[in-house]
Amino acid sequence: MTNIHNLFFFLIRTEVCGAKSQEVSKQNIIGSTLQSLFDFAKTHDMAHIIAEPLLKNKLIPGELAASFRKELMMAVFRSERLSDETKRMCELFEENKIPHLPLKGAVLRNYYPEPWMRTSCDVDILVKQCDLQRASDLLVGKLGYTLESKLSHDWGFFTPDGFHIELHFDLIEQEVASDGIVNHKWSSACLDNVWSLVSCDEGKEYSYHMSDELFYFYHIAHMAKHFERGGCGVRSLLDLWILNHKIEQNETERKRLLVENGLSTFSDVMTNLSEDWFSKDTCRSELEHISEYILYGGVYGNSANSIAVRQNKSGGKIAHFFSMVFLPYYSMKLQYPILEKHKWLLPVCYIRRIFRTIFLRFNRIQSSVKNLTNTSQVTLDKTKTMLKDLGLY
Predict the structure, then answer these.
(1) Contact, 306 vs 227, CB < 8 A?
(2) Coil, helix or strand for 173?
(3) 71 with 48: CB under 8 angstroms?
(4) Residue 169 DSSP label
(5) Which is it for the CA torsion 150, 155, 160, 162, positive or negative?
(6) What is the mean pLDDT of residues 191-218?
(7) Contact 375, 307 (CB under 8 A)
(8) Strands (E), 111-150
(9) Looking at residue 221, what is its pLDDT?
(10) Smallest Cα–Cα separation from 108: which of 208, 207, 215, 199?
(11) What does the pLDDT read at residue 174?
């Protein structure tokens, strides 16, 4: 890790994890370091967290202080607005007898020292598929939301003032997580029956929550899904640290779910990395490659990481290229809904997709081929070793 990374984690430990705040002033901070620090923290949507100790100790000069202060104020504003929207949605669903389950940041922010520390780009709530249309009609008709998209596992909305809402009717779809790759080592099948595993909130009839072990498994599975697509971001590991330090745990049940679904090794390694980042000031050497993969991937990963993973899992560059051209049936039917009832049209849709891509997305093809050919064998070998170490290969 670089000095920027070390300072970044030091400030996170100070603000979120209980390190002594007065130690911040002892750091050797210069203007150029702070600009680089700000830029890096922005790529992980965490500049607002490190802003607080830096501003409090008056360690940021001039215009840069304004940038940090803006990130902090925007995080507080976003947190309050998303919390308000979550409350409005849950009250609306409760009133109309629609079972609902808040997910991800809507739950995790309650475990942070301050809710604004855990930012989200949207609100995620799970409803039953049979209630999806009615829930959508209520959001549009009663709250003034605009329906923006209908995807394989969620419908997207915008509030009148532009905040994004995702109404899920499925958690991690196995076909989506594996994305047609044969060499897929873990399962999220236990989440398919999530409604039989959740408990009703006290004083409510239609508002639900997951048990500790189920929420923990869901978080790990969601991390693994994004990790295999290019990276899972520093924030997800800070979430993991929070789940391991700030709430009552059922360690036996957590471990059982992880082992049964093939994510025990991934969970153990990620826990070790989160401890190195947020409880210590060093990163053990065997975790350095995984650390770099996440640090340089940003919030949701990057294409270089994704290509290296997919080439390994697909069986090489040629196999990966064909997997990009000939998407699995599950992905194709999202682009061509007619395949849902007429699977025999799949070859026709492949031809249509190929010609459409050539004539309308030629620059994108060039970029993909360039990234594909530029991935070195050294990178592929390191990525393969990393995936094996994580139990993902």
Answers:
(1) no
(2) coil
(3) yes
(4) S
(5) negative
(6) 94
(7) yes
(8) 122-127, 146-150
(9) 93
(10) 215
(11) 54
